[in-house]
C-alpha cells in the first residue's frame, strides 16, 4: 500500500526524477528501493530489470528477483490486456533464463563476477558457449554447462565434443564422452516456475514468443517443448571412429585415439573393436620401432588401415635384427596373427611369406628364426608343424640372392627337423658305433635291448623315427636336392666362381649359361696357377663330377670330360689328357670328339703365336702328336710347317694370325710367287707349299700352275709361262684359255714349234667365250697352213735359231716363214662356209693384250682386298670393281659409306694410292693407245705383247672427287696427319682439291680440338681469307693460354711465305713471338748438340728451316730478329751487335747457306722424308728445298739494296 500511495502521489516531474536517478545509480538493492518503487510505468521497470547490468552478482540477483516479483502479479489476472500480459509473461521467462544463466556463470567462474562477461554469457546461445569452452579445452566449464543445461545441449553434444582439441588427452574429458543411452539430466533446483507451462509453450508455438527462444530460455521450457533429444547409436559409433582417426591425423598422438576407443567400448558403444585392434597394433609397432630407432613418423592410422594383413605383419617386424627378431615375433607378430586366425582371415603362414622375402637380403635373420623354432621340444608357436618348418627353411635357402652364404645354408639345412644321410648312418648302428668291443659289452649288459628300443637311457642310441616325424616324399626330395645344390655352391665358391643358389636350381633352363660357367671355371683354374700338379687337376675332375651329380644332372658326362680335357690341353698337360682319353675308369670319348678337341686346341696355340719361333707353335705340334694317325691332324701339321718353314724360305713371312685371316690359300701362294719378281720362281718349292696347304689332287694343283703362269707372263718370264700353259692345256684346265691364246699368238711363242702353238690355240678354242672364237679360229688356220706347207727342215732350222737367240737368224726366219697374214691373203681363199667366221674375225677383242691388263688388275685387286680385309669386315674388292672408272667409283663409295673408324678412313687413302697405279690420266696414255692401234693390224690382234701396258683412262675430276671423300673421312674420324698428307699431295696440283666452301667446312671440323690444326689445314689450301681467319684464332689462343707452335706449323708458315706479313702485323705479335721462340729453340738444340730425328733422316731442320727463316725475315726487312738469330748461331755477344756487324753477319751467313745447299741439292732424297715425323708434309718440304736458292737470293738482294 505504501508503494501504491507513493506512486499515486508522485507527479510526472517526480517520475522523471526517479528514472534519471535510477539511470545514474549502481542498480543495487538500495537503488531499487529508492527509485523503482516510485515509478508508475511498471512495464518500464521490468524492461530495466531485463536490460541493466549490476556491478555485483548480489545486485544482479536482486534486480532479477525484483523483476520476477513484479511479474508475479500476472499469475492469476489479465492485467492490461493481452499484449500487456504477454509482455510480462515473456519477460518473466527471460528473467528466469537470466537468473539460471547467472547461477551457471557463477558456478563456472567459481563465484567470480564480471558484468561484461556475464552480459556476453547470458546473451550467447548455449551451443555457442559450449563450443567455445570445448575449443579452448575448458572441459570443467563444459562439463558444468552440460550438466545444468543438458536438455538444451543434448542434440549438439557430438558437435560440441568435436571442438575439443585433438591434442587434449581423452582422460580429461572422459566424463563428457557420450554413451549409447541418454544420460540422466538434472533440472534446476529452483523448481518449475508457474510460467514454465504448456500454455506458454503453445503461446510460443503460435508465434507470439517475441525474442524468447524456447529451446534456449530454461531447461523446464526445453523439456516441455521438445524433451531430451540424444544422438542415435549409429551417430555415436561413427563419432568415436571419426574422432579417433582425426586425433591421429591431426596430432599424431595415437595413444589418445586408443584411449578414446577404449573409453567408448567401456561405455557400451558397439562397432569400435576393429578400429581399436588396428590402433593397438599400430601402437605396438610404433613403440617397437622406436626402440629399434626406426623412423615411422609417416605411418599414420589411415595408412595402417589401408594395408592388408600381411603388410601389417611385415610392418610389425620392421627394423628387427638377429638379436630381437624372436622376441618381436612373440610380442607383436604372433598375437596379431592369432587374432586374425580367430577371425578366420589367415589362409597361409605370414611368417613363411615374410621369411622368403627377407631371405634375399638377410638369410642370417631367417636362420635365427628357424633355429629357435627347431629347438626341442617343439611348441608350434611360430609354425604349425615340422613340415612347415622344413618348407620354410627350403624356401629361405632358395630365396637367398647372396653368393657367399653356403655355410649358413648348410647350417640351416642341418638344423631342420629331418635326418640326413650322416645322421641316419650314425644312428643306425646301435651297438657297433663305438667299436666292436663296445657293442658286445652293451649287448651283454642289456640283453633284452632291441635295435629300436629307446626306453633305456642310452645317449648313443637315437632313433630318427622317434626323434622326427615322417615327412612326405616330395619334401624329402627337395631336401636332398638342396643338400646337393649347397655342396655344388661350395665347390664353385672355392674355385672363385660365386653363384646364386637360384641359378643352380634353374640351371636346366639355361644350359648354355651353365656350360659357359664351367668353361669360366676351367679358365680361372688354368690362369691362376699355370703350373698346377696332376693331383690338383685330378681333384678338379672329381669336383666336376660332383657338380654334375648334384646340380647339373642334365649335362652328359662325356661333355664334362671333353671340357676338362680341353682345359688339360690348354694347360699343356698332354700326358694327363692322354691318360683321360684312354682311362676305362671314366666315360670314354669318341675318336671324333678327341680329334676335334685336339685340333681346336692346337689351332688356338698356333694362331696365338706372336712370332714364328714362339713356344706356342711347339705346343701346337705337341698337341697334334696325340692324334698321329688322324688325317686332319696331319693337315694341321702341314699348315704349321708351311707357315713357319716353307713360306719364310720363299720370302713370305707372316704370323699365324695373319695367315688365318686369309681365307683362300691361293692368296698365300700368290704372295710367294710375287716375292720373286726380280728372280726366278722356285716352282718346286711353290708346289710343295701348295701341297702343304691342302692342294692335293691334280685339279687343285692346276690352279697353282695357273697363278704361276700368269705371274711369269706378267713379269716377262715367257719361257716358264709357255711351259706351264702347255701343262695346263694337257690337263684341260679351261680357266687359263686366255693366257694360252695370248702366248700361242705372241712373238715369244716363236720359240715353240707349230704343234705346240696349235695345241695352245686348239685348247683356247675349246674353252673361250663366244666373242673370241673367230679370232682364235683364224689363228688356228694360220698355224695349220704353216704346219702343212712349210718343210719340216725349215721349221727345225728356225727353231734352232730361236733357241740360240741370234737376232739375225731370227729375222731371216721371219722372212722365210712369212707372216701369218700373208698366208691367209695370198695362198688361201676363204670358202663361203667360213663367211660367218670372217665376221667374227673382225671382233675388236684383243686377246694378246687381255692377259697382261687382267694380270695388272688382278695384282691391284689383290692388294686392295688385303687393305680392305684388314679394316672392313664385309668389304670386298674384286677385279670387276677395277674394270672401269665407274665401277671403281661405286666400289669406293660403298666402302666410304661403311667407314666408321680412323683406321678405315686411312684404308681409303691407301686404296686410292694403290688404284693410282692402275688408273692413269688420259693425257699420259694417248700416245700409248695410238701406238697400240697402229701395231694391231687390220685383224685387231697385232703383235700381242706390245699392248700389255695399256691402262684404262680416267678423268682427273673423278679421282679428285674420290680423294675429296677420303679427306673428308680422315678429318671426320681424326686421321688428321693422313688428311694433311692428302692436302700436301694435292698442293702441287694446278687445281685445288676443295673449293672454298668445302675448305671452310673441312678446316672447321679439323679445328674443333685446336685452332692450330685448323691453321695447318688452311696453309695447305689456296685461300687467303681462310689463312687469315685461323691465324687470328691461333693468335687468340697464344695470347690466352701461351701455347707453343710445333715444327709442322713452323714449316707450313715458312712455305706459305707469310713470315714478313706476320712480323709486320700488329695483331699477330703472339704468333710472331711463338715463331721466333721456336726457331731459337731449334738453334739452341743445335748448339747443345741435340740432333733431331729428322736430321739423321735427311729431312731439313737447321740446314733449311733456320736459313729459310732468316731469309724471310731479311726479305721483310726485319733485320733485328734475323741478325739476332744469326749472331746467336755465330756465338757473337749481343754487345757487339752493331749495324755494320749485323748486316755483314747476315750477308755472310746467307751466302754460306746458299753455297752449301747448292752443293747438297743433288744428295737430297725426298723419299727419306717419309720416315721422319713430318712425313705428311713431303711435298711442302720438297718445294721448300727446291725454292731455297730463290728465297736466299731475294733476301741477299734486299739486304744489298738497303746497305747502299
From TrEMBL:
The keyword RNA-binding appears for this protein: no
Region ranges (Disordered): 800-852, 922-943
Protein name (database record): Sec39 domain-containing protein
Composition-biased stretches (Low complexity): 800-810
Span of domain Sec39: 129-784
GO biological process: protein transport; retrograde vesicle-mediated transport, Golgi to endoplasmic reticulum
Subcellular locations according to the entry: Endoplasmic reticulum
Pfam families, per the entry: Sec39
Gene Ontology molecular function, alphabetical: SNARE binding
Alphabetical list of InterPro entries matching this protein: Sec39_domain
Record keywords, A-Z: Endoplasmic reticulum, Protein transport, Transport
GO CC annotations on file: Dsl1/NZR complex
Biased composition (Basic and acidic residues): 928-938
Polar residues bias spans: 843-852
Primary localization: endoplasmic reticulum
Amino acid at each position: 500500500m505504501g508503494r501504491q500511495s507513493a506512486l499515486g502521489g508522485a507527479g510526472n516531474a517526480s517520475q522523471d526524477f526517479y528514472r534519471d536517478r535510477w539511470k545514474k545509480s549502481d542498480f543495487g538493492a538500495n537503488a531499487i528501493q529508492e527509485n523503482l518503487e516510485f515509478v508508475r510505468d511498471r512495464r518500464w521497470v521490468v524492461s530495466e530489470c531485463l536490460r541493466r547490468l549490476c556491478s555485483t552478482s548480489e545486485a544482479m540477483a536482486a534486480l532479477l528477483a525484483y523483476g520476477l516479483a513484479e511479474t508475479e502479479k500476472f499469475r492469476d489476472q489479465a492485467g492490461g490486456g493481452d499484449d500487456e500480459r504477454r509482455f510480462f509473461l515473456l519477460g518473466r521467462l527471460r528473467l528466469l533464463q537470466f537468473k539460471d544463466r547467472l547461477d551457471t556463470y557463477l558456478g563456472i567462474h567459481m563465484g567470480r563476477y564480471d558484468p561484461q562477461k556475464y552480459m556476453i554469457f547470458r546473451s550467447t546461445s548455449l551451443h555457442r558457449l559450449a563450443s567455445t569452452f570445448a575449443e579452448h579445452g575448458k572441459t570443467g566449464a563444459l562439463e558444468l554447462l552440460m550438466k545444468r543445461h543438458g536438455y538444451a545441449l543434448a542434440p549438439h553434444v557430438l558437435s560440441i565434443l568435436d571442438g575439443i582439441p585433438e591434442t587434449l588427452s581423452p582422460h580429461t574429458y572422459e566424463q563428457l564422452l557420450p554413451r549409447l543411452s541418454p544420460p540422466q539430466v538434472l533440472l534446476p533446483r529452483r523448481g518449475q516456475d508457474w510460467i514454465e507451462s504448456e500454455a506458454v509453450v503453445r503461446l510460443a508455438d503460435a508465434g507470439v514468443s517475441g525474442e524468447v527462444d524456447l529451446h534456449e530460455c530454461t531447461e523446464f521450457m526445453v523439456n516441455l517443448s521438445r524433451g531430451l533429444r540424444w544422438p542415435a547409436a549409429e551417430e555415436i559409433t561413427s563419432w568415436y571412429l571419426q574422432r579417433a582417426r582425426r586425433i591421429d591425423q591431426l596430432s599424431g598422438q595415437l595413444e589418445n585415439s586408443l584411449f578414446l576407443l577404449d573409453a567408448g567400448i567401456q561405455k557400451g558403444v558397439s562397432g569400435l573393436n576393429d578400429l581399436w585392434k588396428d590402433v593397438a597394433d599400430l601402437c605396438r609397432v610404433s613403440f617397437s620401432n622406436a626402440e629399434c630407432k626406426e623412423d615411422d613418423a609417416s605411418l599414420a592410422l589411415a595408412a595402417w588401415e589401408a594395408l592388408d594383413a600381411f603388410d601389417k605383419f611385415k610392418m610389425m617386424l620392421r627394423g628387427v635384427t638377429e638379436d630381437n627378431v624372436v622376441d618381436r615375433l612373440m610380442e607383436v607378430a604372433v598375437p596379431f596373427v592369432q587374432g586374425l586366425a580367430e577371425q578366420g582371415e589367415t589362409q597361409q603362414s605370414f611368417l613363411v611369406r615374410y621369411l622368403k622375402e627377407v631371405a634375399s637380403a638377410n638369410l642370417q635373420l631367417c636362420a635365427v628364426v628357424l633355429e629357435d623354432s627347431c629347438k626341442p621340444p617343439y611348441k608350434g608357436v611360430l609354425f604349425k608343424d615340422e613340415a612347415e618348418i622344413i618348407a620354410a627353411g627350403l624356401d629361405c635357402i632358395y630365396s637367398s640372392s647372396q653368393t657367399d652364404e653356403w655355410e649358413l645354408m648348410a647350417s640351416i639345412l642341418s638344423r631342420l627337423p629331418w635326418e640326413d644321410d650322416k645322421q641316419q648312418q650314425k644312428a643306425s648302428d646301435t651297438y657297433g658305433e663305438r667299436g666292436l668291443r663296445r657293442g658286445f659289452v652293451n649287448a651283454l649288459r642289456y640283453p633284452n635291448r632291441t635295435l629300436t628300443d629307446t626306453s633305456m637311457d642310452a645317449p648313443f642310441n637315437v632313433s630318427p623315427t622317434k626323434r622326427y616325424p615322417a615327412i612326405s616324399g616330395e619334401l624329402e626330395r627337395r631336401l636332398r636336392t638342396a643338400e646337393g645344390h649347397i655342396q655344388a655352391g661350395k665347390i664353385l665358391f672355392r674355385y672363385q666362381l660365386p653363384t646364386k643358389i637360384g641359378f643352380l636350381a634353374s640351371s636346366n633352363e639355361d644350359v648354355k649359361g651353365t656350360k659357359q660357367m664351367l668353361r669360366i671355371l676351367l679358365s680361372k683354374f688354368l690362369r691362376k696357377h699355370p703350373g698346377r700338379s696332376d693331383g690338383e687337376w685330378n681333384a678338379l675332375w672329381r669336383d666336376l663330377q660332383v657338380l654334375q651329380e648334384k646340380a647339373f644332372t642334365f649335362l652328359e658326362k662325356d661333355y664334362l670330360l671333353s671340357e676338362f680335357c680341353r682345359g688339360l690341353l690348354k694347360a699343356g698337360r698332354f700326358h694327363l689328357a692322354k691318360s683321360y682319353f684312354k682311362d676305362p675308369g671314366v666315360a670314354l670319348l669318341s675318336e671324333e670328339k678327341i680329334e676335334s678337341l685336339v685340333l681346336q686346341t692346337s689351332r688356338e696355340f698356333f694362331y696365338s703365336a706372336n712370332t714364328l719361333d714362339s713356344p706356342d707353335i711347339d705346343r701346337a705340334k705337341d698337341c697334334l702328336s696325340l692324334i698321329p694317325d688322324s688325317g686332319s691332324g696331319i693337315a694341321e701339321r702341314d699348315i704349321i710347317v708351311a707357315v713357319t718353314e716353307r713360306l719364310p724360305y720363299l720370302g713370305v713371312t707372316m704370323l699365324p694370325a695373319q695367315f688365318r685371316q686369309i681365307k683362300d690359300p691361293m692368296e698365300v701362294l700368290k704372295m710367294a710367287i710375287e716375292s720373286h719378281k726380280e728372280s726366278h720362281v722356285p716352282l718346286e718349292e711353290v708346289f710343295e707349299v701348295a701341297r702343304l696347304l691342302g692342294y692335293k689332287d691334280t685339279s687343285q694343283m692346276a690352279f697353282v700352275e695357273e697363278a704361276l703362269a700368269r705371274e711369269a707372263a706378267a713379269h716377262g718370264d715367257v719361257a716358264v709361262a709357255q711351259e706351264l700353259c702347255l701343262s695346263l692345256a694337257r690337263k684341260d684346265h679351261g680357266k687359263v684359255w686366255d693366257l694360252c691364246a695370248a702366248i700361242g699368238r705372241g712373238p715369244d711363242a716363236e720359240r715353240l714349234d707349230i704343234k705346240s702353238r696349235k695345241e695352245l690355240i686348239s685348247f683356247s678354242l675349246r674353252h673361250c667365250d663366244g666373242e673370241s672364237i673367230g679370232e682364235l679360229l683364224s689363228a688356228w688356220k694360220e698355224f695349220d697352213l704353216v704346219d702343212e706347207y712349210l718343210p719340216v727342215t725349215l721349221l727345225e732350222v728356225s727353231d734352232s735359231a730361236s733357241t740360240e737367240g741370234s737376232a739375225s737368224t731370227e729375222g731371216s726366219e721371219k722372212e722365210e716363214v712369212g707372216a701369218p697374214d700373208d698366208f691367209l691373203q695370198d695362198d688361201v681363199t676363204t670358202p663361203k662356209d667360213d663367211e660367218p667366221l670372217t665376221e667374227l674375225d673382225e671382233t675388236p677383242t684383243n686377246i694378246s693384250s687381255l692377259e697382261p691388263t687382267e694380270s695388272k688388275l688382278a695384282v691391284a685387286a689383290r692388294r686392295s682386298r688385303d687393305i680392305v680385309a684388314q679394316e672392313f669386315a664385309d668389304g670386298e674388292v674384286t677385279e670387276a670393281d677395277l674394270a672401269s672408272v665407274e665401277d671403281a667409283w661405286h666400289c669406293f663409295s660403298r666402302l666410304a659409306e661403311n667407314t666408321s673408324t680412323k683406321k678405315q678412313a686411312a684404308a681409303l687413302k691407301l686404296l686410292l694410292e694403290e688404284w693410282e697405279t692402275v688408273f692413269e690420266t688420259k693425257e699420259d696414255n694417248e700416245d700409248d693407245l695410238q701406238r697400240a692401234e697402229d701395231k694391231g693390224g687390220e685383224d685387231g690382234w697385232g703383235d700381242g705383247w706390245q699392248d700389255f701396258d695399256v691402262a684404262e683412262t680416267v678423268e682427273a675430276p673423278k679421282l679428285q672427287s674420290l680423294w675429296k671423300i677420303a679427306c673428308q673421312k680422315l678429318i671426320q674420324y681424326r686421321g688428321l696427319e693422313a688428311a694433311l698428307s692428302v692436302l700436301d699431295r694435292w698442293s702441287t696440283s694446278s687445281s685445288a682439291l676443295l673449293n672454298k666452301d668445302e675448305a671452310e667446312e673441312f678446316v672447321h671440323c679439323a679445328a674443333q680440338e685446336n685452332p692450330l690444326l685448323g691453321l695447318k689445314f688452311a696453309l695447305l689450301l689456296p685461300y687467303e681469307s681462310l689463312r687469315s681467319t685461323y691465324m687470328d684464332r691461333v693468335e687468340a689462343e697464344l695470347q690466352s693460354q701461351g701455347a707453343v707452335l710445333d715444327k709442322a706449323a713452323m714449316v707450313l708458315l715458312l712455305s706459305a711465305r707469310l713470315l714478313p706479313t706476320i712480323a709486320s702485323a700488329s695483331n699477330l705479335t703472339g704468333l710472331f713471338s711463338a715463331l721466333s721462340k721456336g726457331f731459337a729453340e731449334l738453334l739452341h738444340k743445335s748448339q747443345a748438340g741435340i740432333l733431331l730425328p729428322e736430321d739423321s733422316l735427311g729431312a731439313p731442320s737447321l740446314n733449311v728451316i733456320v736459313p729459310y727463316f732468316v731469309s724471310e725475315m731479311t726479305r721483310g726487312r726485319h733485320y733485328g730478329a734475323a741478325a739476332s738469330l744469326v749472331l746467336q748461331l755465330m756465338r757473337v755477344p749481343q754487345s757487339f751487335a752493331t749495324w755494320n756487324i749485323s748486316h755483314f753477319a747476315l750477308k755472310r751467313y746467307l751466302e754460306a747457306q746458299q753455297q752449301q745447299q747448292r752443293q747438297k741439292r743433288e744428295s737430297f732424297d725426298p723419299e727419306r722424308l717419309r720416315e721422319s715425323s713430318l712425313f705428311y708434309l713431303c711435298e711442302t718440304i720438297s718445294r721448300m728445298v727446291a725454292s731455297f736458292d730463290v728465297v736466299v737470293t731475294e733476301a741477299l738482294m734486299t739486304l744489298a739494296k738497303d746497305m747502299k
